[in-house]
Write a structure and sequence with these properties.
By secondary structure, the protein is of the alpha/beta class. The protein contains eight helices and nine strands. Strand 1 and strand 2 form a beta hairpin. Bound molecules: CU-O-CU linkage. The site of CU-O-CU linkage has 8 residues, from helix 2 and helix 6.
Length: 342
């Protein structure tokens, strides 16, 4: 049986997965009386997701304003910034029971839910921001960390007066430091070496180490499956390394380096917009080879999110397979790692 969107009334205090201690915050969402089956709206105008390092001042001002407005929403509005951050916590930190197996919890990471769940998460986050600034074409910026020109934290996030700023970051990794996609606690001092390693990491995760669909997507995870069956290449590698690289080294990784708090980091959404873009690139690279699982355990799996009108909706994995049908597309930039065949 596919995983199904949780019953919000059965949400409990979760676990800090870095310390294995109970969380000291409650990240359960507001309970709603009505749930609507979500239908992708017809695409009138495509939303445009720019590379963060190439974004214009005008775009940055717009995004900054949108997040400011999101932070200013009432604390109990499900579209409020902290409520949105808590969505990540609730789906990751073992707060929800699986529908149909109350002994097991939901954790959408380290499994084949990683790409589709985050795609929906960004989708509604983006639509909420667009609505707040009355711009139906607004798209989230992607942190282009797979390209040497985009490997440092994007400048828009490091200005302390901006709504896109977060003080809880590793202070040794502020720009111009290049992110290390194989980071495991110590940053190499040789930037040329880091950049070249990063390109190899990307080639391996996107091409060389992917034989089966599970290799890329992660392991099957259905109702009745224990959490954490196993991540795919990008999730385990560059994606996880970047989380740890951004988060504080002096605490349990807050904000970016811990599941419960990473949604409080505005940069998180640009990190994941790039992961989302890599999913699209990977599907394009497959050519005529199978791109998606065809089992209903994946396609019919569902999640619940509040949409831009604060309506609780049920969404399915099968609606995530084509970002253009979801109404957004990415700025085209080159992918130098593709030529980086070792
Ligand atoms: Cu939901 Cu990058 O983690």
């Amino acid at each position: 049986t596919p995983l199904a969107g949780p019953d919000f009334t059965k949400c409990s205090r979760g676990t800090n997965l870095n310390t294995s201690q109970p969380l000291d915050v409650d990240c359960c969402p507001p309970v709603a009386t009505a749930i609507i089956d979500y239908k992708l709206p017809p695409v009138k105008k495509m939303r445009f997701r720019p590379a963060a390092h190439l974004a214009t001042d005008e775009y940055i001002a717009k995004y900054d304003k949108a997040v400011e407005l999101m932070k200013a929403l009432p604390a109990d509005d499900p579209r409020n910034f902290m409520q949105q951050a808590n969505v990540h916590c609730a789906y990751c930190n073992l707060t929800y029971e699986q529908v149909g197996d109350s002994d097991l919890k939901i954790q959408i990471h380290n499994s084949w839910h990683f790409y589709p769940w985050h795609r929906w998460y960004l989708y509604f986050y983006e639509r909420i921001l667009g609505k707040l600034i009355d711009d139906p074409t607004f798209g989230l910026p992607f942190w282009n960390w797979d390209n040497p020109k985009g490997m440092a934290m994007p400048a828009m996030f490091v200005k302390p007066s901006s709504s896109l700023f977060d003080a809880r970051r590793n202070q040794n990794h502020l720009p111009p430091a290049a992110t290390d996609l194989a980071y495991s606690g110590t940053q190499s001092v040789d930037t040329t070496q880091i950049v070249s390693n990063n390109l190899t990491v990307m080639y391996n995760e996107m091409v060389r180490n992917v034989q089966t669909l599970e290799d890329f997507y992660g392991a099957r995870y259905n109702t009745g499956t224990q959490p954490d069956p196993g991540p795919g290449t990008v999730e385990r590698g560059s994606h996880a390394a970047l989380h740890v690289w951004v988060g504080e080294a002096t605490s349990s990784g807050e904000d970016m380096g811990n599941f419960y708090s990473c949604g409080r980091e505005p940069m998180f959404f640009s990190h994941h917009t790039n992961v989302d873009r890599l999913w699209t690139i990977w599907r394009d690279l497959r050519g005529s080879k199978t791109k998606d699982f065809v089992d209903s355990d994946w396609l019919d799996a569902s999640y619940l999110f509040y949409d831009e009108n604060a309506q609780l909706v049920r969404v399915k994995v099968s609606d995530t397979l084509d970002n253009k049908k979801m109404g957004y597309d990415f700025q085209k930039v080159d992918t130098p790692w593709l030529k980086n065949r070792p």
